[in-house]
Amino acid sequence: MDYQLGEFEELVLLTVAAQHDEAYGVSIFEFLTAETKKKINISAIHVALKRLQKKGFVSSREGGITAERGGRRKKYYIVTAYGKQVLDAQNDLRSRIYNKIPQISFTQV
Amino acid sequence: MSELQPPKWAVRFLRWYCHDDYLAEIEGDLFELFYLRTSSSNRSANLFFVWNVLRSLRLINLKKTQTNNVTMNLLKNYTKIYFRRFRKETIHYGVNILGLGMGFAILFFILMFVYDEKNIDSFHSKGDRVYRVVEKSQEDDGVHHYFSVANPLADALKADFPAVEETAQMSYFGSQVLAKGDIRIADRDWALATKGIFNILDFEIIDGNPMKDFQGEAGIILTPEIAMSLFGTIDVVGEMVDEARFGPAEVLAVMKDMPRNSTYQFKEIYVINKDQMSEGFQRFFNNWDTRFLQTWILLKEGASPEDLYSQKQAFIEKYYDEEIRDQHDFYLHPLRDVHLGSTHIENGGPAPLLAIQYSDRQFVSIILLMGFLVIFIAALNYINLSSVQALKRTLEASMRKINGATNKHLIGQLFFETFLTIIIAYGVSLLLIFAFFPYFIEIANKNFEIALLFSADFVLYHVLTISIIWTISAFVPALYYSKLKRSLLVLKNAFSGKGDTLRKVLVGIQYALALFLIIGSITIFRQLNYVQSKNLGFNNNNLIILDINSGAARRNFKNIIEGIKSNPNVLNATTSSRVPGEWKDLPIARLHTNLTDPPVLTNHYAVEMNWLDTYQVELIEGRNFTGADLSDSLNILINQKTVEMLSLEEPLGASIWVNNNNDSVQMRVVGIIKDFHFESLYEPIGPVVLTHWNNHIRSIDYFTVRYSQNPKETVEHVESVNATFDPGTPAEIHFLDQQWERFYKAEQSRSTIILIASIVSIMISAFGLFGLINFTAERKTKEIGIRKVMGASVSSIINLILKDYIVLLLISLIVAGPVAYWLFTEWLADFAYRINLSVDIFLIAFVVVSIISFSTVLSRIFKIARENPVNAIKSE
User: Fold this and answer.
1) Per DSSP, which regions of A1-109 are E strands?
2) Chain centroid offset of residue B241 CA
3) Residue in B11, B26, B36 nearest the CB of A46
4) pLDDT in tens, B494-543
C-alpha cells in the first residue's frame, strides 16, 4: 500500500475514527488536547482534515445549526474504508516492528 | 449568553479572507471554542478567538481571487506554462539560469569594485572645486610631474587670483614620536598642514576648533584613538602633548577617523602657523627654489581652472626667475582624479602616506569592460538556447495562434518568460554574491560592506542591468517563436531548423570573446609573475629595516650596529640614507665628469661599508668602502647604468663632481656595482651613486639587518638595542619584502579579478555549448540510430555531432587571436620589463577553452553514440 501520512495527520485520522460519525473540529481539538497534553491549534486540525479529505482518508457531512456556533453548521468527518485500511496498515507496521524488539532491560545503577 | 460575542472586527477579518467553502466550519469551530472559554474569563476567550483567527490565516484557507482581466489571466497562464516547461526541460532552464546568474554575479561584483574605486575621496563636500597643484618640470630626461610645488606658491596663488577661494599646504617629514608623561607613541599616519586645509577638505571635528590660534610652531589635531592612548580620555582639547614633531603642541581639536574611502587616514594633523615657526623654517617656506610642499586649492563657486590659466603667464613672470621660467610650470589636478589619475605624477618631496594606493583608470576600465563582456556572453548564451527551445515549441505556438493569439501575444509571452528566467537568475546571482562576498573582499583588497549592493545608487544599476539584458535576450527567441508556421501543427512539435546560421554566428562571437578574455588574463598574469620573479639585483628576503628617528640613534650608529650584530640570528647589519623600495623620496645627486657638462641625475644612497654584504649587491670591479671614515668620505661606488650614462671609459679611479644643491665636491670612483632595482619593476633600472655615510649630501636614516632565522626574536633584539642607545624613541621596524609587496598588491588583486571573470565567462560559454550539443544530440537521435544500423562507428557518430562546433571554435580563435595580440602588445608596451606574446599563450587558451567546453558534453555524446540503435529509431 502506497500512502503518505504525517504524524499529526495520523493522530487526527485516528481521532476521526475513534469518534466515529461524531468527529468535527472542536471535538477533535478537545480530544487531542486531552490525550496528548500538548498545545494544539484548531487551525492545524483544520488543515490536517483538509489534507486527509484530499487524500481520500476521510469524507464529510454537514450537521445541524446550533446557537453556540454563531449560527454555523458543524462539519462532521467520517473515516473512509481506504482511511481505515491505512490506519490498519500503519498499526500493523508499528506492532510488527515493535514485536521485533528483543528483551531489553535497563537496570538502575 | 447572547450578550457575549467575540470581537466583531476579528469575525469580519475572518470572513474577509476565508474561502467560502471553509468559512462555515472554521467560523463555527472558533465560535464554539470561544463560548467554551468564556466560562473561565471573557478576556482570555477574546484573546483566544483573535489568536485562532490569526492562526487560521493560511494560504490554504484564502479566498481564491478571480480576475476577469485578460492580461492578468494571460500572465497567469504564461507563468503556469513556463514552470511546466521548466520541469520538463530542467537541463535547458537550469543551464540558462546558472549562466545568467553567474554573469550577473560577476557584473555586480565588478560594479561594486569599480564604484568603490570611483568613489575614493568622494566624501569631500566641496570636492568638485578642489584641486591639487601639480608641478610640471622640464628636465634633461623629459617632462616630469610632481605633487610638490614651490613652497611660497600657495600664498601667492591666493593673493593674486580672484578665482581662488582658499589654498593650503600639506607635507610630511618622516616619522614622529608623540609623548605625554611616560607614554610614547610612534606613528607615521600624520600630516603637516596649514589652516586652510580645513576649509578645503572635509574633516569631521568632534570637539574643538582646528582654526584656533595657538602658541608654538604647531598645534595638533588627534583622532580619539590617539587621544585615548596618550591621555586616557578624548576630552583633550586645550591639553598639551609634551613632545611632538615640532616641540610641545596644544591639542586644538579631536577629529573622527577619516572615512574608509579616503586616500589618507591621518591619525594626527599638525596645523602650523608659518609666522610662529623658526627662522630656518620661515626661510624654507619663502624659498621659491625649494619645491617641497603639496599645495591644495579651492576655487570659488563657478570658477574654473581656465580662469587661472589665462593669467598664469603674468603670474609666472612675476614670481619665477627668468632663467627657470621655461623649466617650471604648474597646473591644477582635480581631486576627483587623485585616486585614478595620478600615475603620471611623482612625489617630488616627501608626501603623507597613502592609506589607499593610487590606482590606474585604464585598469579599472578594463575590469569594467570585462564585467560587461561576461554578462554579454551570458545573454548570447540565453539567446541561443532559448531560440532553439522556441523552435521546438511549434505545437504550443500553433495552438495559441489557432485560439486567436496574434504574433504580438506570442512575442509578449516569450518576453514574459525571459523576464521570469532573468528574475530567477538574479535571485541566484544574489545568493552567489552573498556566498562569495568574503572572498571577493579579500581578492579585491577592499573594505566595503555588502550593503553597498543595495544602496540607492546601486538599485538603479540593478534595474538597468535587468532591463537591458532582458531586452537583448528576449528579442531573438521571441521572434523565432512568433514566426513559427501554423501548418507545422500537424507534425506535432517538429523542429523547424531555422536560424542555424545566426546561432552559429552567436556561438562564434561568444567563443571569440571567451578566448579573447582568457588570452588577456594569461598575458596579464604572466607579465605580473615575470615582473615579480625578476631578479632585483639584491636579496630582499630576511631583511629588517629600523628607522633612525633621532639624533641619538644617528650619533650612536656604530654602537647600535655592533649591538645588533651580537645576536646569533643576525648575519649582518648596516646603515644607509635610503633603502631600496623606499617609501619616502629618493634624493637625487647630480654627477658631472666635467663641471661644464650637463649633469647626470642619479639616485643617491649614503651607505656604511657593510651595506653591499647585507643587501648582497654584487661588486663587479674595484673595491668596497674600507671603513676608514676620513679617506672614504671622498670615495664613491657607482652602478653599471651610471657608468654607461656618464660614458666613462676608465671608470675605476675616475674623478667625478658630485653636486647637490649647488654644493659640488670632487670624488673618486673606487668600485662598480651591479645594477639593482630600487623602485618597482615597472620602472627601468636607474643610475645609482653610493657615497660613504659621512658625505656632504645626506645623512643616514635607516638600519638594515639581515637575519638567518627567528624573525620575531630578531625584532625583539633590535628593539632592545634601540632602547639601550636611543631610549627616547620607540623602534619602528619593517620587513623589506613586505614593503616591496606593496608595489604589486593592487595589480595582483586587479589581475585576479580579471582572471576569475574570464574563467566564469568560459564556464558560461561551456554551459551554452552543453545546451546546444545536448539539443543537437536529441534532435539527431533517430539519425544516429539509422546510421548505426547501417554500420557507422561510435567515433564517426561523435564526429558528426562535434565537427561543426570544433570548426566554430577554430574560427573564433582565428578572429580573437589577432585582436588579442594587437591589444595586449599595446598594453605590454607600457612596461619597462615585459614578456613576449608567444604562440603558446594562444595555444593554452584554445586548449583550456576546448577542454572545459567539450569535457562537459563528451560523456553525453558518448552515451548517445553507444546506445542500442533500436531504442533510438523507436523514439519520437
Assistant:
1) 58-65, 73-79
2) 38
3) B26
4) 555 555 777 788 888 888 888 888 888 888 888 877 877 777 788 888 88
Handedness of CA B715, B719, B722, B728 (dihedral sign): positive
Q: Which run of H or E residues covers position B525?
A: helix B500-533
pLDDT band at B487 (very low <50, low <70, confident <90, very high): low
Q: Which residues pair with B461 in a beta bridge?
A: none
Q: List the grid coordinates of B468.
A: 537591458
Closest residue in A to B57 (Cα–Cα)? A43
Nearest to B253 by CA among B187, B218, B205: B205
Secondary structure element (H or E) that encloses residue B252, with its range = strand B249-255
Is B234 exposed, middle or buried, given 0-12, 13-18 or 19+ CB atoms closer than 10 A? Answer: middle
Residues B430, B424: Cα–Cα separation, whole Å: 10
- The residues, any chain, with a CB within 8 Å of residue B507's CB and separated by 6 or more, are B380, B384, B768, B769, B772, B805, B808
Q: Which of B28, B36, B61 sits opposite A73 (nearest CB)?
A: B28
On the question of pLDDT at A14 being above 90, the answer is yes
B439 touches chain A (CB under 8 A): no
Q: Which of residues 42-71 of B touch A (CB under 8 A)?
A: 52, 55-56, 58, 60-61
Tell me, what's the ipTM?
Answer: 0.88
Q: B29–A47: do the CB atoms touch at under 8 Å?
A: no
Q: What are B678's three cell numbers?
A: 630600487
> For residue B638, how many other CB atoms are within 10 A of its CB?
26
Query: Within an 8 Å CB–CB cutoff, is residue B24 touching chain A?
Result: yes
- Distance CA(A24)–CA(A53), nearest Å, equals 13
Q: Give the closest-approach CA distance of B73 to chain A in angstroms.
A: 26
Using CA atoms, how far apart are residues B471 and B475, in angstroms rounded to an integer? 6
Q: Are B398 and B489 in contact (CB under 8 A)?
A: yes
Residues contacting residue B240 through CB under 8 Å, at least 6 positions apart: B248, B249, B250, B251
**Tens of pLDDT, residues B851-876:** 877 777 777 777 777 777 777 776 65
The C-alpha cell at B808 is 566554430
Q: What is the DSSP letter of A72?
A: P
For residue B174, pLDDT over 80 is answered with no
pLDDT for residue B488: 55
How far from the centroid of its chain's Cα atoms is residue B434's Cα?
19
What's the whole-number average pLDDT of chain B? 85
Residue B292 near residue B248, CB atoms below 8 Å? no
Query: What pLDDT does residue B489 have?
Result: 54
- Residue B180: beta bridge partners? B183
CB distance B768 to B95 below 8 Å? yes
pLDDT tens for residues B512-525? 888 888 888 888 88
Is the CA virtual torsion B109, B112, B116, B118 positive or negative? positive
Tell me the backbone φ, ψ of residue B342, rounded to 5 degrees: -110, 10
Helix (H, G, I), strand (E, B) or coil at B677: coil
